[in-house]
Amino acid sequence: MNARDPMAVATPTHALLQSTRDIVRAQLSPRVSEIDAGHYPVEILKALASAGAMSAHLKAPHGLGDFGLAIQAMAEVSRACGATGFMVWCQAVCGLYLQEAQSVQLREVDLPRHASGMRVGGTALSNPMKSYAQIEQFLLSADPVPGGYRVSGTLPWVSNLATDHYCGAIAALNGMESGQELMFLLRCDNPGIELKACPSFSGMEGTGTYALHLKDYWVPESDVIASPSRPLIKRIRSAFVMLQCGIAAGIIQGAIDSMWEVEPQLGHVNQYLDDRPDALQAELDSLLERVLALAQTPYDDRDEFFVRVLDARAHGGELALRAAQSALLHQGARGYLMSSAVQRRVRESHFVAIVTPAIKHLRKEMDRLTREELPA
Amino acid sequence: MSEYICKACGHIYNEDAGDPESGLAPGTRFEDIPDDWMCPLCGVTKRDFIPFEPRAIEAFTPVTSGRKALSGASHYDLVIVGAGTAGWEMAEAAREAWAECSIALITGCSGDRYDKPLISVALAKGLTPESMVKESGSLAAQRLGVDLYAHTQVISLSPSQSRIRTTRGSFSYGDVVLAHGARARIPEGLSPRECWRVNHIDHYRAMRDEVASGLKDILIVGAGLIGVEMANDLALVGHRVVLIDAQHRPLAALVRDHSTLEPLMQAWASLPIRFIGGVEVSGSQSGVDQRKSILLSSGEIVEVDLILAAAGLLTPDRLAESAALEWDNGICVNPQTLQTSSKHIYALGDCVSVNGRVSRFIEPIRRQARTIASQVAGNTLVPYEVREVPIRLKATSHPITLSTSG
Questions:
Q1: What is the CA radius of gyration of chain B?
Q2: Residue B347, strand partner residues
Q3: Which of A115, B38, B39, B78 could form a disulfide linkage to A62, CB 3.0–4.6 angstroms apart?
Q4: pTM of the full predicted structure?
């Protein structure tokens, strides 16, 4: 064992985690299958937000400035329902955009409503994140006009949305060199935007996910989060990625729970399987320890630090796949029932592995960031 | 027949196939598709489609399986990090000590084997970088029965899980040997994007390409062994070299008796080398024709075509830090066993330090590899001994023995 204190993970439960667990038990757990099939649980999200489960990472007075606690709360939710855990992440990073926004209106009017759960939002940064990593091109473009910008383009799938929600988005500025993008709050109830239903996904259908079609959508200066956006993205990229570790940690823990559940009946045959629950738990605990250590300095913007965050996130994706797969094998035929929690969790683990940044993107980005830079 | 790809989701519209479900008959040309047509997969519009051209993948083989043919393997008895002299000597010694051992060798480069000391005399000897490769990485891997993971970065180590994480997946290991070497230090006042380096054959090759187009003005920062040898080699084929160092004489850290350098200084009198001692770089500016103006701490400005960093090496600490290994200027190892502060992790070559001292010479590496191999194989320990070895300056016609070091 390495020298770190294993008690770091087992500190006394914070009151926030207890109230999160209570909401999960009473409201979320009974509805997880419906959410997987398409029910968007806005009432549960608002309950979680008002308990503070989506804002622990925000600065006071809207939060506790504690990223570790925010990640643990997200894990508590994801342990029961990966889809809802993902929406907790959407709301949490959108809160981060509002907190860091250059617009006073966003910081002083929208942020308090968002943090309390009165308003709900998501993040449309999958495409720009891949653009920054040289994987895709920008899909939105903005024209500067007096008093603001006109934005057009289409984004394929953005989550945690409804007609009265919003999301953080980034558009390339027409006629400007790259590196001059605009980051703004995209309000779904404004003119110039249309939400279109997506084709069926294999799971996590109740995540309020839509294609967004923008035509001359108006962005007033008061909705600008950052222009240019790159300095802000560099500052929050580690926070953005490390928060996702909460989704992975919860899904892994849920899978381990399902293995223990059948141990009394099936342990005598399950002992022959790879990836037994005690070994997975040890690996998860050590991963979570690493994540909580990184969560102490979420705004460290050095590449070396970002590589450590990307590595933890990749480990979370890989371990989620292994744990969900193993949980299915541990449960056997009953795990193959469509209604089984482990069946759902296999699909949730696939989501963690492919959502931006996907395992392959994480590896490509780590490769880029760890190479020696040479003269061009 | 043309194909168009959706920028958002990657769906490909093939003109021959059309999109019958949306009413586009097979053979419908892209320009004839109505503007309100949407991507059948993700719903973006025709505007977000662009002509599809398959993206080229760099032409290299990332994974070569050795005779144990364990492609896709998740466990190795031994994982070696780095494929320089230290990494390959380690693979040779481990194979000799333990015939059945499963070995992975992971490296950020191609893994080709070459003699690094030849780099600083290559121009005068007429050697090309290609001719300095004595065995390709994949052939060496097959000969030694090693699974070679080339162009693969090792990201972290977890001793408690005995796992190593890389950009091509993670593996569990019995033992790990860190042989990843060190990187050229970027001098104060300069950025990695403006300094060429010669601590790896790939970096040297890039610099050779840069100087191939004619005689250049070259600033070499650092007049230690590498800086002096490179100055000598570049000047012998006609490049104009300005060599600077913070010390007042070349090789100041290695040479106590300055008369030792007399023959070299006399030879340099007829070469286009100018040494400026007691200065550092204060700043740089791009000039015309891609030249650079370098401001020295003396106030002098030198105009050059390229800058070569020879100001020493730094050992990267990412892996040591991830495994919480003891560190003192390099990875601390036990001087007899070369074990790090973690039981199944060893280290050798340029990345190790003994009592805070690093040794960046070739001679000890093979002996270090034998010491580690004896332990990995579970044989009687062959203890490593720190020996005094002569350091020689390879200045072509004026080789000079400078001092000794372990």
A1: 26
A2: B178
A3: A115
A4: 0.91
Tokens standing for residue A32: 């997880």
The answer, for A119 touching chain B at a CB cutoff of 8 Å, is no
Full set of structural domains in chain B with CATH: 3-51 (2.20.28.10), 63-182+315-392 (3.50.50.60), 187-312 (3.50.50.60)
Contact A198 B160 (CB under 8 A): no
Would you give the distance in Å from CA B306 to the centre of its chain? 20
Q: For chains A and B, count residue pairs whose Cβ atoms are closer than 8 Å.
A: 97
The alpha-carbon gap from B161 to the nearest alpha carbon of chain A, in Å, equals 7
**Residue A240 CA, distance from chain mean position:** 8
Cβ within 8 Å, pair A366-B196: no
Q: Is B22 on the interface with A (CB under 8 A)?
A: no
What is the C-alpha separation between B227 and B221, in angstroms, rounded?
Answer: 7
Nearest to A366 among B167, B195, B342 (CB): B167
Kindly indicate the confidence band of residue B59, based on its pLDDT and cuts at 50, 70 and 90.
low
CB atoms within 10 A of CB A5: 9
The pLDDT value recorded for residue B319 is: 97
For B167, the closest chain A residue by CA position comes to: A363
Chain A residues near residue B39 by CB distance under 8 angstroms: 156
Q: What gap in Å lies between CA A115 and CA A49, rounded to an integer? A: 7
Taking CA A175 as the corner, what is the angle to CA A229 and CA A210, rounded to the nearest 5 degrees? Answer: 55
- Of B392, B398, B217, nearest to B306 (Cα)? B217
CA distance A121 to A346: 27
Taking the CA of residue A267 and the nearest CA in chain B, the distance in Å comes to: 23
A289 touches chain B (CB under 8 A): no
| Angle subtended at Cα B198 by Cα B196 and Cα B203, rounded to the nearest 5 degrees | 70
* 3-class DSSP state of A127: helix
Instruction: Please tell me the predicted confidence (pLDDT) of residue B66.
Output: 66
The ipTM is: 0.89
Q: What is the pLDDT of residues A250-285, one digit of tens each?
A: 999 999 999 999 999 999 999 999 999 999 999 999
What domains are defined for chain A?
Answer: 6-120 (1.10.540.10), 122-226 (2.40.110.10), 230-370 (1.20.140.10)
Q: How far is CA A335 from CA A79, A256, A318, B50, in A?
A: 17, 13, 20, 43
Task: Decide: helix, strand or coil at residue B60.
Answer: coil
Give the model confidence (pLDDT) of B302-327 as tens digits.
999 999 999 999 999 999 999 999 99
pLDDT at B7: 84
Mean pLDDT of chain B: 91
For chain A, say whether B256 makes contact (Cβ under 8 Å).
no
Q: Does B37 touch chain A (CB under 8 A)?
A: no
Read off the pLDDT of residues B219-237 as tens digits, 9 standing for 90 and up. Answer: 999 999 999 999 999 999 9
**pLDDT of amino acid A376:** 78
Q: How far is CA B361 from the centre of its chain?
A: 16
In total, chain A counts a number of residues equal to 376
